[in-house]
Amino acid sequence: MQEELFTSGRNIPHIDPSLQIWHWPISTYLFLGGLAAGILFFAALFYVLGKEKQYPTAVKLATVISPIALSLGLIALLYDLTHKFYAWQLYTTFRIESPMSWGAWVLLIVTPLSFLWVFSYYSEIFPKWENKLQLLTKFKFLKTFELFLIKNRKYMAYALIPLTLVLGVYTGILLSAFNARPLWNNAILGPLFLVSGLSTGAAAIILLSKTTAEKHMFGKIDLVLIIVELALIVHMLMGMYAGSQVQLEAMQLLVNGEFTLMFFGFVVILGLIVPAILELIELIGYKVPVIVPALLVLLGGLIFRFVMVEAGQLTRFLY
Amino acid sequence: MRYAMVIDTLKCVGCSDCVVACQTENDVPHGYCRDWITETVDGSYPNLDLELKSERCNHCDNAPCVRCCPTGASHIVDGGIVLVTENECIGCGACIESCPYDARYQHPDGYVDKCTFCHHRLEKGQLPACVSVCPTKCMYFGDLDNPNSEVSQLLKNRKHKTLAPEAGTNPHVFYLI
Prior knowledge:
The complex is a heterodimer. By secondary structure, chain A is an all-alpha fold.
């Protein structure tokens, strides 16, 4: 039996609750960052592969989500900072050991690139707007800029492929770098968040896609990603099961504790297994409204971030 | 030069004088603290073991807070003291999440604050406020690199421990047991 009582310090208001300092802005950002990274990765990849005409939603329409998601994510991040007016300090240095520094710099490049990518397709994605507003005809420099972007789209795509992968991995490594939080402190979290981000990206493309061929293609991609993600989750739990006492206790939160229902019910079953089965049934040829598995994957991805962020902060070293 | 603190858990009575001294010396905002007392009861009745000790930032050699800081606001100065530069800190909380000792807090002004080993007093040749006020004289402070210093001698001759050594942080607050 071990009983611990703090006679001073941790039982003071503001100290004890503030030890759990990361809440919804961080979880939401991790989801939005992964989603934007996933969508942009597929857009750049299929552009480079020359499949622009075959998969127009992935390369064009769906990318509209990315700048919006990244902007909202950045607003959430800024909201979460307590010393906001010093946020520029992030860009006075690059700290190779700090995942957050990597993330800050990658976002500084990916966010404008996402806007430029969408702008280069502006007249194709929103022909009605363009007809009405005539922006490109009214402002010559916009037209020149658009032509410049279209000409250099290939380079944007080549840059986006590695950058979005770094962005996707970093959302996980951000958490796994904290050895003080045993639930986060496992090397699989980076790949797991990347795969989850790519999977939500594929789901968003399915949601917006109008052609069956494209829906099927991304259904297949999503199915593979879901299977990989499930395997990585099993690996994560196995790693913790074989770990030290702090990791065993961290695992208990997920498998037999207050986050079990959220984790297994909403993330694993409703967010991964059910959509995988639905996508499989759909691929075999039965009619399934694809909006259902796609929304489940997106919701599962969001809840997964919330579970990991909140549960991780309840785990700690015991002394 | 490597500063370290040694605290004798057999002499500590848990009076919290060190906590109040720190709050006064460092103008710690009301409701927060940079050091605190823990009271740990081990064992099962009637064989109980009580340990009182004063805890604070461990000024680790392998400091996870310094590693995770995205701006370099958290840094290590001469003597191995971990400090936070207020106007470089963005208040992201990465260091708070990374600390196994929960030694940091967000100051109401936004930046992250913690024990400094009273760096400003050391510069004047004075001891940290907590050490200087301890009524049972259970706290010792000095240079570990000097084998003749009081702290080196105590660690040489007495049984001691650090907190969560398994975190791999190489902490520099030692507890005599």
